[in-house]
């Protein structure tokens, strides 16, 4: 559907404090959510319960890290990372960071995946939700939110 | 290794492989179609743990304990439900996307009892269909939702099978349940796999081929080169200029030119062996397009030709120059149209084996089994070939040439082994001939009332690396460039150039899609200049029964262009009155080959041991529904009922040659041959029963006789009949997107109105792509660069409301008045859309796809 829901683009695999891009567990999103759809998970990262999310965008505005965005509920293949550091630094920072390797671009059949500033992004208007990028991502930074092709989170 | 469940059964995949390969190659669940193996098309959609997923994406090792469902695993009720819903809605054409669509339907209905139309569209939005335009698939899904709740599957709404009845097509069940076989669905004992090593350069001299390393690889059966060809190397429809294998010393013509054919016991060895074939080249400068090809010092694409002109046509009647000079209003413009890829869902595949009589049997997906037979015989230098059509997963003109059939035949002939030769999707995009790009200069002159005085034009096209049907496409582009109007001063010259780009050939519309954009766009501009509406200028000039077309032909009583305009008028007037941006265009399209070429329809009705009449016609059903058309012909023209009749797919040893499924010709031409056979059968049935007629053959043939182009007769008959159409595009002012398309088509007698609507909807959506988004970019190395998923094909959630209106106009004295449809559905769409955008923003667009619309694709 064209229904939009919030997505936190961080999966909380940080090894140290060197990732300046990810979720900082501040709880601003949790506090502002009118539907109690956001909670801080075991990895210390905000996570959205899609079934509760209203797509209002309040958390998007509240997030000091600017890592929450609205995406199409019908497009389950998402990049859950916001790290824009070059490959080596990004790799050191986190277990599941995007290192901008470009494999997603290469395997994407529809030109929807594109790496800019060392970070993959998926254009949901072009995405066919095939999940080839999620399956091939060497860093497990791309997820199938349905849990079919990858773990759910 | 992983153990998981397929259709409820526990299975173990030893080797880690894509789920698609496991389901097809090991479990032989061939309902799961391999349309691209790159995640784009959706034909291999299965359900995993309740969610739809392309089987080509996950590896089996990732599926431990998961539950996979294919259509083979549907419950009996679901099988009945979806067969009925898809049949009743008319949602099945070529069928290749259908099992995937059915599983999308199931996955949706398992979650949502009462889905909205939007939910339905989104449920299939990642699955491509190139035939239906999604309209009837969406209807089928709505119907399935409704019936699933009641738990009862009713009888079809129409059952009498006479002409004019929208019966369920006869191939619905095998396509919905996925048991009907396309060539790729055959897995024969001892079958090998074949594939061609292709040129690294668009234009190069082949200096040597070293296959020793490939031949030494265990599992390699053979590596064949041009020297091994027993017959003629070059094949082709009319002109034999398509090399089956480029010989040492020979020139390559494009990146798809095959140089060696590798045959191996399995697909993995095949891919390894292909990399071991070493070809040495002398790279040469390539010809990148017609502008280069026409230069006096241009490199020659063919050693055998004196220049790069593949075809030249000049058509002239009356005096266009003088007529235009004397016209009150004159407009001249330049137009351009792009390459277009057919994007049928089934990539090319052929299976060949030695049959019990020592013939090479080719199981093919093509637009004429007899054409395949003819070309294979040339290549093998042998008569011992038989071809049998399998289901054809869409053609649209792109399966008229040899791509894999001749290679499969050659391999079996030389090795004695069964073989499957299949193109990957990337190869398919490179190899089969595309729609020609055209560059066109048109001038039109009208009087003060908007009556056309004369039209003069000059066009050229890029026909790429071999002729294919470049000559006839150019000819049809020229003969139809006048539009369906009543004026007699018309002149056009056209040239098709060889280049080192991929070949161009037949594509739904056959050249007319291109010139129609030019003439109809000019007519819209002319209407504005004169101060009348686009509707009015067409109604004033429309060709009517008894009048003379610009080609000199006096048209028959079946001519219904004015009726299409009258039928569209209420919709047009309403849109204009509502202040909406609206565009209109008309077209005509021949049925049949025409222009003096022998154009035979042939059909045998054979009564067999089962006391049924079996229909044998050497004519391919490529998804349009020919089998259903012929059965409806027999039911209408004999005392027999549906259950007395069996439709047999085309073959070359029983079914007589009834020509290519091309030129919108099969309904009319094979239909008339079938009707003639029915007359004989009916006569016999007056005195004997079917049982008593066992073994008897009733033969019908029909020659669609026409005059050749430029024949020295007052009124040459170029074609036995023409279909006419008017289409209209309404835009949403706020979004700039298409709100609705209305397509009115004069088809003579509609054999199966619902099928006919399906053709129209599919043709309109296909040409919305042509008008707004589809591209086939080629780089400086003459290489097409886009993947299937980037072509810009429309998806289910993007299509507007499409209203298909069929005008039945009697008058044609053959085939019970059925003119046919097929191509014309795609012809007036683009100029109608271009005019609507002009009405929106005042910008005249003369190049396709149209720029500056919300559909324009961003770069990447």
What does this structure look like?
- The complex is a heterodimer of chains A (153) and B (860).
- With 153 residues, chain A is an alpha+beta fold.
- Chain A has helices spanning 28-32, 58-62, 87-93, 103-107, 132-136; strands at residues 4-8, 38-40, 46-48, 68-72, 77-79, 113-116, 119-122, 142-144.
- In chain A, the strands form four sheets. A two-stranded antiparallel sheet of chain A has the order 1-4.
- Chain A is globular and about 40 Å long.
- Chain B has 860 residues and is α+β, with helices and mostly antiparallel strands.
- In chain B, strands 8-11-6-18-15-16-17 form a seven-stranded mixed β-sheet, sandwiched between helices.
- In chain B, 63% of the residues are buried.
- The A-B interface holds A 1-2, 74, 107-111, 114, 123, 126, 128-132, 135, 146-149 and B 36, 38-40, 42, 48-49, 51, 53-54, 57-59, 62, 118-119, 122, 125-126, 786-790, 860.
CATH architecture classification name of the domain at 314-340 and 434-594 and 715-841 in chain B:
2-Layer Sandwich
The biggest sheet of chain A amounts to: 2 strands, antiparallel
Protein structure class of chain B? alpha+beta
CATH class of chain A: Alpha Beta
Q: Low-confidence parts of chain B, pLDDT < 50 over ≥5 residues?
A: none
Shape of chain B: globular
Query: Based on helices, strands and strand pairing, what is the structural class of chain A?
Result: alpha+beta
The H/E string of chain A reads EHEEHEEHHEEHE
Sheet-strand content of chain A, in percent, reads 15-25%
Q: Compute the separation of the termini of chain A in Å.
A: 21 Å
CATH class of the domain at 314-340 and 434-594 and 715-841 in chain B: Alpha Beta
Radius of gyration of chain A from the CA trace? 14 Å
Number of structurally distinct domains of chain A: 1
* CATH homologous superfamily placement of the domain at 314-340 and 434-594 and 715-841 in chain B: Aldehyde oxidase/xanthine dehydrogenase, molybdopterin binding domain
The number of distinct β-strands of chain B equals 31
How is the CATH topology of the domain at 314-340 and 434-594 and 715-841 in chain B named?
Aldehyde Oxidoreductase, domain 4
Low-confidence stretches of chain A: none
Helix content of chain B: 25-40%
Q: N- to C-terminal separation of chain B?
A: 38 Å
- Largest interface summary: A-B, 21 and 25 residues
CATH fold annotation of chain A: Alpha-Beta Plaits
